[in-house]
Amino acid sequence: MACQKVSCSEKEAVSGNSCAYARFAGVPLKLHKTANPWGSPTGTLPALKTGENGSFSQPSKIIIEFRKQKYNADFDLSAKEGADTLAFISLVEEKLMPALIYTLWVDPKNYVEVTRRWHGDNIPFPLNFFLPSHMHRQQLARLRLIKGDEALESGEEVEKELYHDAQECMDLLSQRLGSSKFFFGDSPSSLDAHVFGYLALLLKIQLPCGQLQQHLQSLDNLTQFCSNILTLYFPSELDEGPAHKISTPPEGSDLDSGPNKKRKQLLSLFFALGAMLSYALLTGIVSVEHVSIEDSRESQDISEGQPGEEDE
C-alpha cells in the first residue's frame, strides 16, 4: 500500500488513538501536524487522506480503513481478549472521555489559560479569533449530549461527578494492566492505543487545575505505560510539550491543494470581513440605528403632510 497521509493536531499526533494505532500496526504514514481543523482534507481532525479510497475523519473510521488495508494491531488477540478490548474501550469513552472534555474545554481556568491560548497561538490569523470559541461551544454541546443535560455548565457538583467516574476508570485500567508492559502482553493493541490516546495528553499537558493529572501520576504503572509508548513509538515528541507552537506546513503541499485550499481561502476572507466589521462597530466607525414602526409611520405622515401645507 502506498504511503497514506494523516492530518492531525499536535495533541492528536502525540496522544491520538488513530496515530498510535498506526504506529502499532506499522502503517506507512506521512504525518502533517496542524492546529487548524479547516486545514485538513475533511475539515476536521484527525483526518486520513488515501490515494485510492479518499479521505476519512473520526479515529474509529480511520482505524477501520487501516484494518481494511490489512494493518491490524489486534490480529493476535484471542476471542476473550477481543471482548475485553470492547468492554474497556466502552468504559473509557463513558467514564474518562467526559472528564477530559470538561478538564480541557469547560473548566474556566484550564480553558482560558491553556486550551484557548494554545489554539489561539497555533491557528492562523484571522481564524484564531473565532475557532477556539467555536470549538469550545462544540465540546460543551458534546459533553451535554453525553451526560444528557442540556443546561450543563462548569460547577463543583458536575466536576465532582465527572472526576469521580474518571478516577474510578483509571483505577480499573491500572488493575487490568498490572505489571505488564501492554494490556495484552508484549505487543500493543487497539486498547493500548485507545487508553494511551487519553492518558498521554493528560500526563504531558500542564494545567492550572490538575486534579485528574494528580490521580494519574499516583498510578505508577499507567504513567510508565505512557512513557514506554512515547519512548518506543513517539521519540520525537518526548521533548515537545503541548504548549509549543506548530510549524505551518509549506504551501503547495498535498493538504493545501484543490477544494481544501479554496475552502481555507474563502473562510479566511469571510472571517477577515467579519473581524473588520466587528472592529468598525466597536469603534463607532459604523453605527446601527434602530427605528421603531411608530417612528417610521410618524415620519411618513409628516412627509406626506408637507405638500399640502405648501399648497395652502
Describe it.
The chain is mainly alpha-helical and 312 residues long. It is built from twelve helices and four strands. Strands 2-1-3-4 form a four-stranded mixed beta sheet. Strand 3 and strand 4 form a beta hairpin. It is globular, with a radius of gyration of 25 Å. About 6% of the residues have low confidence.
Keywords:
single chain; 312 residues; mainly alpha; 60% helix; globular
Summarize the structure.
This protein is mainly α and 312 residues long.
Helix content: 55-70%
* Number of β-strand runs: 4
**Proportion of beta-strand residues:** 5-15%
Could you state the order of secondary-structure elements as H and E?
Answer: EHHEEEHHHHHHHHHH
From the spread of the alpha carbons, the general shape counts as globular
> How would a crystallographer describe the biggest sheet?
4 strands, mixed
Counting DSSP H or I runs of 4 or more residues, the number of helices is 12
Distance between the termini: 92 Å
User: What integer value in Å does the Rg equal?
Assistant: 25 Å
Stretches where pLDDT is under 50 for at least 5 consecutive residues are 9-15, 246-258
Walk across the major sheet and give the strand order. 2-1-3-4
Question: What kind of assembly state do the chains in view correspond to?
Answer: single chain
Secondary structure class reads: mainly alpha
The mean pLDDT is: 78
